[in-house]
Amino acid sequence: MSYPGYPPNTGGYPPQPGAYPPQAGGYPPQAGGYPPQAGGYPPQAGGHPPQGGGYPGAAGGYPSAGGYPPQGGGYPAPAGGYPPQAGGYPQQPGGFPPQAGGYPQQPGGFPPQAGGYPQQPGASGFPAMQGGGWGGAPGGYPGGAPQGYPGGPAPGQPTPNFPGAPATNPSMPAYGSGVPSHPQAPPISKGYRGSIKDYPGADPLRDVEVLRKAMKGFGTDENAIIELLGNRSRKQRVPLVAAYKTTYGKDLKHDLKSELTGNFEKLVLAMLMSQSAFDAYELREAIKGAGTDEACLIEILASRSNAEIIEINKIYKSEYGKTLEDAITSDTSGHFRRLLVSLSQGNRDERETVDIALAKQDAQKLYAAGENKVGTDESQFNAILCARSKPHLRAVFLEYQQMCGRDIEKSICREMSGNVESGMVAVVKCIKNTPAYFAERLHKAMQGAGTKDRTLIRIMVTRSEVDMLDIRQEYVRTYGKSLYTHISGDTSGDYKKLLLKLCGGND
Questions:
Q1: CB distance 423 to 465 below 8 Å
Q2: What's the number of CA atoms in the CB half-sphere (13 Å) around residue 57?
Q3: Taking the model in full, what pTM does it have?
Q4: Measured between alpha carbons, how far is 465 from 237 in angstroms, rounded to an integer?
Q5: CATH number of this structure's domain 204-260, picked from the four choices 3.20.20.70, 1.10.220.10, 3.90.800.10, 3.30.70.120
Q6: Alpha-carbon distance 239 to 241, whole Å?
Q7: At 433, is the secondary structure helix, strand, or coil?
Q8: Long-range contacts, 1-5 (Cβ 8 Å, 24+)
Q9: Cα dihedral sign for 439, 440, 445, 449?
Q10: Which of 268, 284, 267, 264 is nearest to 276 (CA)?
Q11: 163-170 CB contacts, 8 Å cutoff, 24+ apart
């Protein structure tokens, strides 16, 4: 049986029925030889054209599918690769003429290309082989590749037509790109940290009946109101307004205003509002009038999530007839205005993963914008503090301290002044440790001669179902006495009783 392109030669592959006879130094004898198989190297004029299941000609490299995977043990590794055979492959039309350095460039064959088999001096141009693997010469696998693994390019060389593996040190992703190169595990949730929980079996119709009885007749049963509202979560309290009107045809808030007074009245009404409606109301109160409560603006906008800020914007526009941004713009100025406008967009990155390389870059930018230049580039601080995620910023603050040996708050105080200084510092504190920030706000509200009741009411109401337990821990750790004790000594009457309900207990 003869194959076109493989003439019988002494020492070559003589025509034999169905098999290749064993040759000295060539393929070891096998039972039955290597008969032509469908999908292998069928006899074709012109050498070995690509066939389904064979070695298709791929541009510059190894085909990924359809070839012959290496078998256990690979090709035997005679010393020096394939030894010369008498006659070898003669130069005949359609055959494999001997060429120096490797395989001839034939259509469908293996032309020598970057990333292919290295050109080695050897008999018939085949690369030398060592240890059962592909040749351990420059560009090959030193010492031989592991048995049973597909042949591949040299380590460090590109693999043609294969998807590139990720770089050892991937380039830093730009802000807003995909998965960061140095992800950190998201913080472990500590469970519910609020002091007020859902009351099991609460019924709005029964609850409004209790409220109606507490206000009906001569005098008011404040204790009944305190016990009811102090033991209901916000989602159980807010529906009471609609249930009261449905049941009695009257406005619950109006009736409460007529029966209650002072800070107790303000606290009760605050507890009957939704979170976003109360925030919008507080922002409105902070902006309108002669003065502006800048600390209140920063407190709300720096501590709320994107979704909460977007909802606040909607309610503010519908309730007060102008956008929150317009209200801020008309009442503030300069870099402080820019800070508030940026925070009011509700567009902060909220991913939990942290890119350490990007955190280092941001820390360097903050240092270059402040401590390391004459003057201060407040815009750079604004861009980073208002756009980056809170876990990312905590990493930035740590990198900043390690880089220049100073807390970011101290640098801001050295570089800025006025409202923008206090605003930036508040944003940093709120992001760095939110419970500690609110503990400080509560302490300042009760410290000194008078009590800032608006601040006290707002924080106690808005944080009672978020992180009040953590705030209490930070309070006693920082100031040496419990929040419960401080509220008890600084307030009185029904107002104190309901505040202590929101506090939840003594530490």
A1: no
A2: 15
A3: 0.65
A4: 13
A5: 1.10.220.10
A6: 5
A7: coil
A8: 3/43, 4/43, 4/44, 4/45, 4/46, 4/94, 5/44, 5/45, 5/46, 5/47, 5/92, 5/93, 5/94, 5/95, 5/96
A9: positive
A10: 284
A11: none
* pLDDT one digit per residue (tens) for the chain, 507 residues: 444 444 444 444 444 454 444 444 444 444 444 554 544 444 444 444 444 444 444 444 444 444 444 444 444 444 444 444 444 444 444 444 444 444 444 444 444 444 444 444 443 444 444 444 434 344 444 444 444 444 444 545 444 444 444 444 433 333 333 334 444 444 555 799 999 999 999 999 999 999 999 999 888 999 999 999 999 999 999 999 999 999 999 999 999 999 999 999 999 999 999 999 999 999 999 999 778 999 999 999 999 999 999 999 999 999 999 999 999 999 999 999 999 999 999 999 999 999 999 999 999 999 999 988 888 899 999 999 999 999 999 999 999 999 999 999 999 999 999 999 999 999 999 999 999 999 999 999 999 888 999 999 999 999 999 999 999 999 999 999 999 999 999 999 999 999 999 999 998
CA distance 149 to 177: 36
Which residues lie closer than 8 Å to 93 by C-beta, 6 or more apart? Answer: 5
Q: Decide if 44 contacts 34 (C-beta within 8 A).
A: no
433-507: CATH topology is: Annexin V; domain 1 (1.10.220)
CB 141 within 8 A of CB 87: no
Beta bridge partners of 133: 130
Q: What is the DSSP string of 177-245?
A: -SS-SS--PPPPP-----S--PPTT--HHHHHHHHHHHHSSSS--HHHHHHHHTTS-HHHHTHHHHHHH
Phi then psi for residue 130, to 5 deg, are -130, 150
CB atoms within 10 A of CB 331: 17
d(C-alpha 78, C-alpha 254), whole Å: 100
Specify the residue for token string 């070995």: 48
| Topology alike, domains 204-260 and 348-432 | yes
Which pair of structure tokens corresponds to residue 330? 């008309």
Q: Residue 110 is encoded by which pair of tokens?
A: 């293996």
- What are the residue ranges spanned by the domains of the chain? 204-260, 348-432, 433-507
Q: Is the Cβ–Cβ distance between 264 and 496 less than 8 Å? A: no
Pick the CATH number of 348-432 from 2.60.120.260, 3.10.129.10, 3.30.160.270, 1.10.220.10: 1.10.220.10
Contact 487, 448 (CB under 8 A): no
Residue identified by tokens 């750079």 is: 380
